[in-house]
Backbone:
């Protein structure tokens, strides 16, 4: 399965600023996803970022707040814009690849963001 | 994708088998059962998946009932490192534009020394 590197692993940011999170994959993958995990909660999908198409956002998430780039099959970025303390979460990227007939999903180790 | 129901928490003694149940009564014929776990502060880790038949790998066994409305993940000899939140997810194998993985609340498994 793919190996995912996320940067930064953690950051503390001032409110009103923006942070760009990078996700690097060691193999070419078409399907990539960004998740948010708020403290003590499960994972919530932010958007699907397939290469060659615009990112598809889930309900409650908008492009102006979470712009995503997907320039090639091994890399993506998620920006958290105009941050507030409510954006303090772990952000994870994930890729999907086929394991036999079914998709298998691999996750990065996440970016722990604290907004002060 | 069909919804799943899991107990919020479970304990298991170290060295014993941990049996984690999952109900998915609305599962459809083309939906797989996936299990992932998340150890504190790490990204979710794939454990196993299955469609109809029971499955086993180096980490665990997956037992799916004949009517496919429920399943059990079995960790045969639980260790302290198996303490984690375990997610049971049901979804179709693939489908253009429908590849996302949706997480429920999972079961917090604590292995007791």
Residues:
């Amino acid at each position: 399965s793919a190996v995912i590197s996320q940067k930064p692993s953690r950051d503390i940011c001032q409110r009103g600023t923006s942070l760009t999170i990078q996700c690097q994959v060691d193999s070419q993958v078409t399907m990539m996803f960004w998740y948010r995990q708020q403290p003590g909660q499960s994972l919530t999908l932010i958007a699907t970022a397939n290469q060659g198409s615009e990112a598809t956002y889930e309900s409650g998430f908008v492009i102006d707040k979470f712009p995503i780039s997907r320039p090639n099959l091994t890399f993506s970025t998620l920006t958290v814009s105009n941050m507030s303390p409510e954006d303090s979460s772990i952000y994870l990227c994930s890729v999907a690849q086929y394991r036999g007939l079914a998709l298998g999903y691999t996750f990065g180790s996440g970016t722990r963001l604290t907004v002060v | 994708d069909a919804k799943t129901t899991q107990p919020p928490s479970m304990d298991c003694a170290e060295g014993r088998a941990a049996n984690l149940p999952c109900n998915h009564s609305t599962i459809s014929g083309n939906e797989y059962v996936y299990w992932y776990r998340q150890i504190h502060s790490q990204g979710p880790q794939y454990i196993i998946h299955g469609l109809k038949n029971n499955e086993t790998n180096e980490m665990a066994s997956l037992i799916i009932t004949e009517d496919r409305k429920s399943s059990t993940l079995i960790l045969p000899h639980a260790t302290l490192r198996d303490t984690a939140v375990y997610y049971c997810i049901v979804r179709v194998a693939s489908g253009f534009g429908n590849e996302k993985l949706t997480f429920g609340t999972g079961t917090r498994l604590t292995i007791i020394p």
